[in-house]
Amino acid sequence: MPMATAVTASLEGALHEARQRTLSLVAPFSDAELERVQHPLMSPLCWDLGHIAAYEDLWLVHRHGGEELLRGDLADLYDAFETPRAVRGDIPFLRGREVFAYLDAVRERTLAVLERHGPGDGTLFEMVLRHEAQHNETMRQTLFLAGLPGGHPQPHPRPDDDRRGDAIDWIDVPAGRFGLGAPAAGFAFDNERPRHVVKLPAFRIARRPICNGTWMHFCEGGGYERREWWSDEGWAWKEEYDITHPEGWTADGPAEDDHAPVTHVSWFEADAFARSQGARLPTEAEWERAATWTQEPLRQTGAVWEWTSSHFDGYPGFVAHPYREYSEVFFGDGYRVLRGASWATEPSVRSPHFRNWDLPQRRQIFAGVRLAKDVS
Fold this sequence. Notes:
This protein is of the alpha+beta class and 376 residues long. It is 35% helix and 10% strand. The chain has 2 domains: 3-146, Four Helix Bundle (Hemerythrin (Met), subunit A) (Up-down Bundle); 160-374, paralog of FGE (formylglycine-generating enzyme), CATH 3.90.1580.
């Protein structure tokens, strides 16, 4: 098979698999459930479906193929910046069979463009595939908050070395220089580049993220009551919303077993917990250094996103590509960086260089905590 034909066939297969995952995710739900605002923080699932289609039409059919949008009248409606989450339940997004017909029609156009024009360098196709995968995870956050199927990981046995109770097992990482960011070759999002050399002092990092059992001890030991462990902003947030435990916990504790990584904690909670342990959150440079260091591997990476102490900003020499709204508009002191991946993250998105970000009060994300310490 010629190279171009093989690449096209591979992309067709990847597009099909991504769409099957999306359709399988929403298959259990009625039209009414898909159209409903399941949680004030999240979009209706039906809006996500239409947004996935509109994004694909914009980048693969319009920008790559040079054709008019299938539904130009929907462009603003499915633009995440024109229609923030707070208003999405009130706008005339496609409902019922209309949204699935839109997904199908856009996909037919995409495949025709791929056949006529080829994949180019493949960047836009990879971006669209990862966009759909990221929205799958966002939709799972909605399902979690709504208490619907698909919002929790499937239980599975854990290796014996990941069931060590409350003890924090530390890795000592020596001082040195390393390349932070994605290499020049291959796909990466704009905020992952340019790769640049960073010099770090020696530090210690926990081999595993903090588990439910350890967090339960934090709760029982007054973790949400000890003012000295909380930042001013974190304490004000906790008091205003009466936060006493991670999102999704009941009076009896977490839904998962004690050995599972704690999930659905905010940056404020993660920071307070770290202080309670005489530790801190790792910087994102420390996290990537440890995740790519071959001497002693981190454990349980990919089970939960892990908060870092770093604010989200561009690397030195950052260039927005292919549009500034993916990353640049979020730069600054407001957002904190998360690293790793969660159980809901598709393999295509998983990378030691990938940078996730969210506001420090957010708890819908499948986020947990890995501790770090200075070496004195």
